[in-house]
Amino acid sequence: MHEFRVQVGPAAFRIGSQWKRPLDQLAEFYRDYPVPEIPDYSVRLESVSLLRRFIRPSVAINGDYMLPDAAPLPLAQGLLAAEMAMNLQMALGWRRHLLLHASAVEKDGRALIMTGQSGSGKSTLAAMLGHRGWRFMGDEFVLVDLDSGDAVPFPRLISLKNEAIGAMMATALDGRFGPLMPETPKGDIRHMVPPADAIAAMSRPARPALLLFPSFGFDAAFREVGPSEVFMRLTQASTNYVALGEKGFSTLTRFVQTVPARAIDYRDGIEAEALVNQLWAECV
Amino acid sequence: MTASQGIKYKAEPADQILVTPLDSLTLVYQRRSGITHIVAEPAPEILAAMGTDAMTADEVAQRLAAQFDFDGTQAADIIAARLNELADLGLVERCHA
User: Fold this and answer.
1) In the prediction, which pLDDT does A173 show?
2) Domains, chain B, ranges and CATH?
3) Residue extents of the structural domains in chain A
4) From which residue to which does the signal peptide run (chain A) (predicted)?
5) Quick one: average pLDDT of A153-163?
6) How far apart are CA B13 and CA A164, in angstroms?
7) Among the partner residues B23, B29, B36, nearest to A228 by beta-carbon distance
8) pLDDT in tens, B39-70
């Protein structure tokens, strides 16, 4: 079993694999990240059977936390399998912070947090803003400190999907991109290494200052979202709110009472950036 | 006489719930169950008015009527319906006389 270790924000991972190639890819893309001594989670990329280790190799995701019905992926999508496995450990196991399924960027010590359904563009917007003067904090999870309420970065590889791949390759000309993985269960996927400043500052939290619910594909518009609606949406966007009990309640209620929220519609990155800048100036 | 008359209700003790009013709804976190309830008025007002007393719907209505400007006798059925909903949520307990 080959092994790779990486620290992403506050979480330390050990990834074991029966194949070397996915770990070589991880080592290349995570080369600027710290290597932890003691992992929080272990994940394993294993063949579904002895035969499938060699013939049409198929990667099953195993680890401390597992979904019993997760479909195996072809070996060519081994990097995706590793990323999914790490996300799964966080989603099912993390208890040190309130975990929101959201992306975030930072400016002047304050965090802009974006959450929404898959396809809303939260990941692409965070990646784009990370190349336009903001510090990228993460595109999958925002970790909210249970005591301070600060957003803690989790800047894993950025997962670009479908049209976002071409858009980001045009925006981040100096970006480091992973292999194109066509026709995954989530469409075409290409990973991107976060900007160097995001990795260097991944232990530096930021105070949540604005929450956006982006919707891609509509004429540019925004509306205020009240605390009750924000609370309901964020309980759905959190995988550990219930598990955290009273701490989760106090952390989330403080968040919704102190962070202004807007829903934004946009058709392209230029519109989105203009709306973000406008709302940032108005609300922060 | 309504079905709820004669039934007394007792609210979850105040130190067992965390109540956070938001813009249009109120969050009630129940320590015993770890469940967050999202309720609308008059549920939070009912819980606050009941305090530690075991009360019928009529008594709750009269107490609320004294605090807010409405006719308690006409509101008793509405209060009884809300009390039964709160009982189903586990935020009040039915104590049969």
Assistant:
1) 86
2) 7-96 (3.90.930)
3) 2-93, 97-283
4) none
5) 94
6) 52
7) B23
8) 999 999 999 999 999 999 999 999 999 988 88
